[in-house]
Amino acid sequence: MSLTAGVIAVQGDVTEHGDAIRAAARAHGDEVTVREIRQSGIVPDCDLLLIPGGESTTISRLVEREGIDEEIRAHVEADKPLLATCAGLILVSRDANDERVTTLDLLDISVERNAFGRQRDSFEAPLSVTGLDDPFPAVFIRAPLIDDVGDGVEVLATWEDRPVAVRQGPIVGTAFHPELTADSRIHDLAFFDDIAVDRSTAPTE
């Protein structure tokens, strides 16, 4: 299968996410073209979409200014897979508890920005994640806290009894940075498991 993956590239670990997507695709024998998205007009051509970390206030402002926000909403409405990590998780939530962030209201959660502390409070934790056989080495950097989860949201992982990875429909959201390890299983879970591939509208070769 040949797929096109888009990474919102206004901020964040764009290259690292692209590498993780390619690694996950290779594990399934799929081909993927990764496109960096800084302007409108690219998202509609993408089978898979990723919103990375960064500064959520900046990302929300830039995707709205460039008209990417409505394209992201259309991507999810078409039931195409979306992975949102750290600030990306904040962006897709229904409520960021911060009036400076205009959320996309795609994931029925509310979040608290930087709830796990400042940069110096960063840490790595082994997470038991639904769908993964072994713990995932999650890296938390100025991570948001998911403080409310809607009825339609599946909690995939918790840390200290707090949800840190969730799924709702085609969206997987994480409070941590899965791209900062050599482990591409979160990208695999979001994009290349049977459910995600079935949702994709990508043509087969």
The overall number of domains is 1
Note the quaternary state here: single chain
N-to-C span: 6 Å
Low-confidence stretches: 199-205
- Computed Rg: 15 Å
The number of helical runs is 6
User: Considering DSSP H and I runs of 4 or more, what fraction of the residues is helical?
Assistant: 25-40%
Tell me which CATH architecture applies here: 3-Layer(aba) Sandwich
Instruction: Tell me the name of the CATH class.
Output: Alpha Beta
CATH-assigned fold name:
Rossmann fold
SSE string: EHEEHHEHEEEEEEEEHH
Structural class, from helix and strand content? alpha/beta
Number of strands: 12
Which percent band covers the strand fraction? 25-35%
Can you lay out the helices and strands and say which pair or pack?
Layout: E1 2-8, H1 14-27, E2 31-37, E3 48-51, H2 56-65, H3 68-77, E4 82-85, H4 87-92, E5 93-95, E6 107-112, E7 123-127, E8 136-140, E9 145-149, E10 154-159, E11 162-168, E12 171-174, H5 185-191, H6 194-199
Parallel strand pairs: 1-2, 1-3, 3-4, 4-12, 5-6
Antiparallel strand pairs: 6-9, 7-8, 10-11, 11-12
Walkthrough of the structure:
The chain has about 200 residues and is an alpha/beta fold. The chain has 6 helices and 12 strands. The protein has helices spanning about 15-25, 55-65, 70-75, 85-90, 185-190, 195-200, and strands spanning about 1-10, 30-35, 50, 80-85, 95, 105-110, 125, 135-140, 145-150, 155-160, 160-170, 170-175. The strands form 3 sheets. Strands 2-1-3-4-12-11-10 form a 7-stranded mixed β-sheet, sandwiched between helices. It has a 3-stranded mixed β-sheet with strand order 5-6-9. β7 and β8 (about 135-140) form a beta hairpin. Mean pLDDT is about 90; it is low at about 200-205.
